[in-house]
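## retry 2 of 3
previous attempt timed out at serialization; input unchanged, resubmitting
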Amino acid sequence: MSRPLLTRFRLAALMFLEFFVWGAWIVPISGYMNGVLGFSGTQIGWICGASALGAMVSPLFVGYVADRFFATERVLAVLHVAGAACLVWAAGQTSFAGLMAALMANALCFMPTLALVNNLVFRNIDNADRFARIAVGSNVGWIIAGLSVGFILGEGDGNFFYLAAGAQVILALYCLTLPHTPPKGVGAGKTDVFGLTAISLLKDPAFLAFAVAIPLVTISKTFYTTWTNAFLSEIALPRPTAVMTLSQASEIATMIVLPWIIARIGLKRVIVVGMAFWAIRFFAFATMSVPAVLAGLLMHGFSYGFVVAGASIYAARVAPPGMTARAQSLIALLIFGIGMFFGAQLAGFTGHAYSPRNIAAVRQTAGGAEQRVQVPLPGWSDVGKDDLPGLLGASEDRVNIALLEHLPEAGIAIQRDEDLRIAKRDLISAFKAADRDGNGIVAGADWQRLRLHGWPKIWSWGAGLAIIACLLFWIGGREPQPIGERNL
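## retry succeeded, writing output
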């Protein structure tokens, strides 16, 4: 194997480990918080935004350090050891505050490494367009992580954090074996502590349009990272973390052909197409049809691959030699910081606004007292059918709401919880909400819809944001050209 080819293989292995670590916990966590920890949509949004907060605080500073003081591979090793410790801490947290603190600390360590890994790769290859094929390693790592969690560890507890932490320790050691990548930005000003000279790239109007569109489409993308695992769980697709690896399988194929596509249609058009596919996939998800949802997962290569890999190549093309790490850090700030933070908040707010219906109930406490609580709407088979004589149709899948008036005021017990009763008025209110046709008859399928998030509306928000970003970059952007030092 030739030396350049061996170097590219080693860099692909770096990308594999980097994204194995991230994929091992970031994919299953939304389903874990939604289905196991019982966090609200707003809390899930804040947790998913923890990585973005870290990306907003640290990458520009760390990029400056790597550009001026320490070799990139050594900075990576230190950050990954610290990040692994934070993931072990996160594994034992079940409260919102505890998990938020642990993942925020992890984000401060891990998020800068995304930009530093890209910088190390670009510094050790002779052609920036080769990046896409090296980045295939990241897709493989994400897939293996998802399959490991979905088929081996399971998604019902926090053990996936331990998997990620162990892999991150291995990654830290591996970083020390990588090609030496010393600091290169000798011409940077001594006062540029946070690497803010990279912002001077915004003087180019086309780059400014790019810098606005990228975080906007990332806000859209964050709807996917925040809710897809929970979405697949609610529509009863088995092993959602494993199913989501279909996205990375499609991205592998896309990354292999991406240099060829860029050469044929240009980098700007590649990014525009990627943004458009975010909208298309969300519309596919909104149908809640399993074939359409699977097709939407397979669109990931075009949506994520074209936009995120395209953005990294864009930065590599326009940044002068002494600013490469800071330019990648600026892109990381726009995507994984600003975009992901505001995206997580909006996704959390939207998920809360269209959350499953709760129902008021009375719980018998250990001391014999009654306590009024809000609980998730019980399943159709748990609505106390033994207490509803004469209400079921011939198919035993329909309830006549008018006949509920004959129930006692105390209501009925939920079959799976003998200490929990639903009062008559609350039960009637829930059945009326499920009566979409207004005919006074509620079927099991109608009842089940109340137990799901309003997914079509949630995904429509994500699609609308992607369309705006696509139009903005299509109109204001242009094919990137190298920017010389004299223009800065």
